[in-house]
Amino acid sequence: MITKTVKQFFIYLVLVAITIAIIFPIYWTFLVSTKLKIELLDRPVPYPTRFASENYSRPFVKDIYGQYLMNSILVALGNVGLVLLLAIPATYGLSRFKIKGKENLFFWLITNRMAPPAAFIIPLYLIFSGKVLSFIHLIDTHLVLILTYCLFNLPFAIWLLRGTIDSLPVELDEAAYVDGCSNLGILWKIIIPLAKPTIVVTAILTWLFSWNEMLLASILTSTRASTITPAIIKFVTMAGTDWGEMAAVSIVCLIPAFVFLGFTQRYIIAGLTFGAMKE
Amino acid sequence: MKTSFRKQISGWGFLSPALAVIGFIGIFPFVYVVWLSLYEYNVFSLKGWIFTGLGNYLKLILDARFLDSLYKSILFVGVTCGIQIPLGLAFAILLSQQFVGRGVFRTILALPLSMAPVAIGSMWVLITRPAVGPISYWLSTFGITYNISESSVQAFLTTVIMDVWHWTPFVTLTFLAGLTSIPPEPLEAARVDGANAWKTFRYVTFPLLKPIFATILFIRIMDTFRIYDEIWALTSGGPGTATRYVNISLVRTTLAQSDYGYGATMSVFLLYLTVALCTVLLKLISKVRKEYE
Amino acid sequence: MKKLLALSLVVILVVVFSSMALGADMEWWEKAAEPYRGVTLKVIGQSTAPSIVLRDIAAPEFEKVTGIKVDFEVQPWEVEYEKFIRDVTGNTGIYDAAYIEQDAIYAFMQQKWLTDLTELMEKNPQITDPDLDVNDFTKFIEYFKDSNGHIFGFPFEAFLKMYIYRTDLFNDPEAKEAFKAEYGKDLKPADTWEEYEQNAKFFTEWGKKKGIELYGHTAQAKTGYPAVAYEIVESIWPAMGIYNWGINLEKWRATVENGGQVNSDKAKAALRWYVDMLKYAPPDVKTYTWDEESSSVAAGKVAQGLVYCENLAPLICNPEKSKVAGKVAVTKPPTTPEALADAKAGKGYIGYYDGASYSIPYCSKNKEAAWLFIQWVTRKGWDLEYTRLASRVVRKSTLESPEIKDMDIAQGGYFTAFKEYESLFSGAAPLPMHLVIIDIYMNWISKAVAGEATPEVALDGLAKEIDEAMVKLGY
């Protein structure tokens, strides 16, 4: 018979272990960011002995990493906005209306998400540099990433939302319709409020993908709209990897994402139901 | 009659903006890649574009190097998902218990998810480098030589651990969502019937979690197959080819060797492999979902 | 301390004189750039010191003087190439000037991706700097010319890969005595590979005996990454008598049967030697890529090795980045006697002449303005200052100038060694399919280094696959 105290103790033990496992690598990165270059030639002392602020100030103040960070935030937010704007009506359409070939369409959408991103490099580059339609010149703009990420995020969003919206009873629609609501009104007044937790989850996961993506960002942007992820690899040069600065940029890059996630994680808990749990 | 006709048009109306965007950036690349896969085309070739039809695909199936990386990828996906999904579930159950500071721990879980894969790869390089990282130092006090640039097994395991570190929190948070949405009635009923914790879990909780389980499996398998940034930063596919997973092969062929034709073939092949795998899983999810409707 | 003062004085004088010179001939630049004022050039370079100096110092100055804006992008090695290749193959005309490394230029010339600068100069004398003095460039510029002698890129950075050794260790009386006792001869920096191996063994054991972390060798041996293949083809094979990557440049074949040398006994012995020598290197040598060879020296862990001299300056001068500042020197790499004789006779070479140029893609829309920029960054008036900032030498006048003496002393005799041995080094072999086959070399050499195959099996496999690739590419 396991007493409650023993159970609590065991729980805390495991939790502490998990916390250490999660935090240690991040602590180490922070540690590296406080070290001078010469301390990093060998194994550094495992605690901060001084704070090498130039590891932070050089990329963000002297160089333009602050701008890259800003670009990341803009692209991520922009993409979340666009995805929600397009995916919610799309899922509503798929769910509530008789559309021929619905399942096949849905499946085609998902395959876009499954494809290896490396496959898209050249075609997307050709499209956005004006080789396919000559009036398009979107290389190195924020818009190009906001649009491109839709290729992966829209299908995923539709897929996430579909379970929830499907599980909302059609009777609610019909009741509203009888009351004189248009389709759009039903969407706005009934569906969205009820699906809010899942919408929040979708927003979070979309934001995460846009924030963390590197390959396409590196290819489609250069100096003006580059996000911070391709900028991290710039530290790996033929003349030396500046671990201190790279660690500093990694830490700073982590902060907005963590704030965003930490703040909204309670919505994840409430929202991820995939439509199977609502009574 | 009139209502359903109107409804159909409106349905397409709601759907079309999304379809337009995806179509605009999705259809041309897809067509282009398939078309390219039918040619032998290397940017530096003197011969230019040579039409080979399905010749590239035949070559791919017989390509020992590619098959080797495919095998390693499947092994990697199997091991890493096989660890992080049960582990995530276990942690979720743990975190669904009542205790002080629950919210704090849940927030800490969000940390690995907030890091860009390339940053995670670099971070693990820092920890695992034999001369300057802490792990090799500690392990050496136990007499274990830890050097992922020499030992294939150690390198493979390190990539597994890195992926588990990265994604188990996601799995945990997802299962936690599922657990907290379980209505209390079935659990109450089980308790009244005298079932212990394990039996409750097995016959009540877990069946209710099956849809989420299937979904997580789907997402993780799909994404782990596409892994690149972290592994490249950590090992560049080494030592030798021990951690050269399928996406690394693809990127090296397309970008480094500029073999666009063959790279396109690989892309199409990998896409349909993933599609086949996920079709099976999707059917599984639909079947499971139908059981609850 | 005196050296530091002398250096500072030199620096001050240089800055004063160059700014005076700057004022004087700015007139020509202003006039020449008149028709292009307001244009924005897009330049892509690598994220290494010389290009970063251009981005941070030369480009803003250029803008001030000429009114031509420069949008300067820096990327790591592979990314820079990929972006350039995507631009030219897609004919998208995004870049006006690009960093072209010496070993890649043959591929790009052959594909006709670059603008013929000799022609450009002839057609546009009004935007060609009267002071350009093409003959003042070191022999390095030869590696950017096509078979007609036309120039396709102007070098702005050049370095030799030299042999570096710890002067304090090699001069240590105790070490000298122990070495003499064991080998019966004096301890000195290696001239041949046998001596190099003896030194390596000695110092690794010396480190163990003394309980310090010291090794006798270093390498760039990360498997799965191209650096290890480059070390073999750039440095190890030439110094052992195998040139041009072991490929027969007339028949374009690598196997011995077809006239190449890749799977010859000499090549196999060299690769086996390389793999065996790793036991004298630090245990994490297989994580080393481009710069860890020099940073392992900087950490004080290594007694001798080969080093890209773009990494030399901080290693030798900067106590904030190096634990052995002031305690190292450089000289030519060890060779076999035959390789040295070949190099002196002009039939071979003993090491790698590294560097790059800025070239103009054929699809650029601002070729004339880009040409002005390229001349700006390679101009004589600024070259000495640029050498001070980034240690690269491309002009003979800079090498001959009196100011270089102090830099030379501070950098362990690098510039003296440069002058003396430059003729023995060579840029990469003229292989137009370079970027494709380096990946194949990397695959097989990695296998040998990782122990997945013996060096003999690996080179047999490599030679065969190269021949197949050549056929497929149409050679």
Tally the structural domains of chain B. Answer: 1
**The number of domains of chain A:** 2
**Overall pLDDT level of chain A:** 82
CATH class category name of chain B: Mainly Alpha
Can you offer a commentary on this structure?
The complex is a heterotrimer of chains A (279), B (293) and C (475). Chain A contains 11 helices and 2 strands. Chain A has helices at residues 4-33, 54-62, 65-96, 102-114, 121-128, 142-167, 170-178, 183-212, 215-220, 228-232, 243-271; strands at 236-237, 240-241. Chain B is mainly alpha-helical. Chain B has helices at 2-36, 55-61, 64-95, 102-113, 117-128, 134-141, 152-180, 184-192, 197-225, 229-235, 246-256, 260-290, and strands spanning 39-40, 50-51. Chain B has a two-stranded antiparallel ribbon with strand order 1-2. In chain B, helix 3 (64-95) packs antiparallel against helix 9. The longest helix of chain B is centred in the first third of the chain and has 35 residues, at 2-36. Chain B is globular, with a radius of gyration of 24 Å. The mean pLDDT of chain B is 84. Chain C is of the alpha/beta class. Chain C has 2 domains: 2-159 and 355-417, D-Maltodextrin-Binding Protein, domain 2 (3-Layer(aba) Sandwich); 160-351, Periplasmic binding protein-like II (D-Maltodextrin-Binding Protein, domain 2), CATH 3.40.190. In chain C, 49% of the residues lie in helices and 11% in strands. In chain C, strands 1, 2, 3, 4, 5, 6, 7 and 8 form an 8-stranded mixed sheet that branches. In chain C, helix 2 (49-66) links the parallel strand 1 and strand 2. Chain C is globular, with a radius of gyration of 23 Å. In chain C, 55% of the residues are buried. Chains in contact: A-B, A-C, B-C. Chains A and B meet through helix 1, helix 3, helix 4, helix 5 and helix 6 of A and helix 1, helix 4, helix 5, helix 7 and helix 9 of B.
